[in-house]
Amino acid sequence: MEKKRMVSGITSTGKLTLGNYIGALKNFVKLQDEYEMFIFVANLHGITTPIEKEVLKNNIKQSIALYFACGLDPNKATIFIQSDISEHSELAWILTCNTNIGELNRMTQFKDKSSKVKANNGTEYIPSGLLMYPVLMAADILLYDPELVPVGKDQKQHIELARSIGERMNSKYGNMFVIPEEYTPKLGSKILDLQDPTKKMSKSSSNPKSYIALLDNIDEVKKKIKSAVTDSENLIKYDLENKPGVSNLITIYSCLKNISIEQTEQHFLGKDYGILKEEVSNEVVNLLMTIQKKYEEIINSNMIDEYLEKGAKKAKIVASKKINKVKNLVGLNYKRK
Ligand code: AQP
């Protein structure tokens, strides 16, 4: 039986976090046997807001090495760098011409991120990439005809947009794209900021204490978890609305132990926040030590280039076939009917 296809990527805006691991990478690894996976480093998305050249290069290399260190297998999944497959940008333009500005203005992430840019530098300068990036994301997806797109909660609206654009193109031009469904993990689709647990843990946060990077120094990680915001109740109970900090620690523990929230609550019954933090810390540290050991082996070898070449070749075959079909259907190839 043919495997179902999945596609996903992680933006190279910073150092990959525990949120990226639990919400994305851990699931990619789990699903790579069952699905035909296309996983890329979203470096074109990485330049949406200003970023130093050397920082970007470093983020790309680190991300790829971390994909492998976390367990993605180049013999199972097709792993590549987004900008190596020029069809992503080409399709993004064609989709842009079939998208309304109103649809993009409504995106919650655009509203959030554009208001942050304004607040940070006190000007009205908003990079147009912030508005347009969901269209590039739609292209990233539709190019590969996946049945499923694994995403965290915050990306749901963008998947909806990709579906709308795909459906619009299909009804305008004929059978162009497979319309994908989103795949959201039941648990861990939104790991929260350690200092402000009303927000998502984010790699581009200006406060390093608010996130755990997979390559963080182990002592720093312990300190970050120790100083994670909780509440004064000293009751280990999952209640996202009233106890977001504690609920976040419970979620992290459950995801890393592969147990349910109820099992975690049961485990910590009658214990205090000190114990909760200590045990969460032990789990995170064990995970990070394993990842960091593998990362060191990979980053210092020439495996990365070899694997990427292999991944890009496979991705290119699918992407070039699709872009040709799109160009023909849109009428860009004057020789084709
Ligand atoms: N905190 C999170 N909890 C669960 N899942 C998360 N993801 C990201 N943060 C969390 C999931 O990881 C995948 C790749 O996301 P991304 O890095 O491309 O973009 P993002 O969602 O915008 O993540 P960041 O860290 O907040 O990026 P920046 O700082 O650049 O804006 C997605 O599946 C995402 O849901």
UniProtKB/TrEMBL annotation:
Binding residue positions for ATP: 11-13, 19-20, 152-154, 191, 200-204
Which InterPro entries does the entry link to?
aa-tRNA-synth_Ic (IPR002305), Rossmann-like_a/b/a_fold (IPR014729), Trp-tRNA-ligase (IPR002306), Trp-tRNA-ligase_bac-type (IPR024109), Trp-tRNA_synthetase (IPR050203)
What is the residue range of the motif 'HIGH' region?
Answer: 12-20
Q: Name one GO biological process term.
A: tryptophanyl-tRNA aminoacylation
Q: Which residues bind L-tryptophan?
A: 140
Q: Which keywords annotate this record?
A: Aminoacyl-tRNA synthetase, ATP-binding, Cytoplasm, Ligase, Nucleotide-binding, Protein biosynthesis
Intervals of motif 'KMSKS' region: 200-204
A Pfam family it matches: tRNA-synt_1b
Task: From the Swiss-Prot or TrEMBL record, state where the protein is found.
Answer: Cytoplasm
Q: Name one GO cellular component term.
A: cytosol
Q: Does the keyword Protein biosynthesis apply?
A: yes
Family membership: Belongs to the class-I aminoacyl-tRNA synthetase family.
Q: Which NCBIfam families match?
A: trpS
Protein's recorded name: Tryptophan--tRNA ligase
Q: Which gene encodes it?
A: trpS
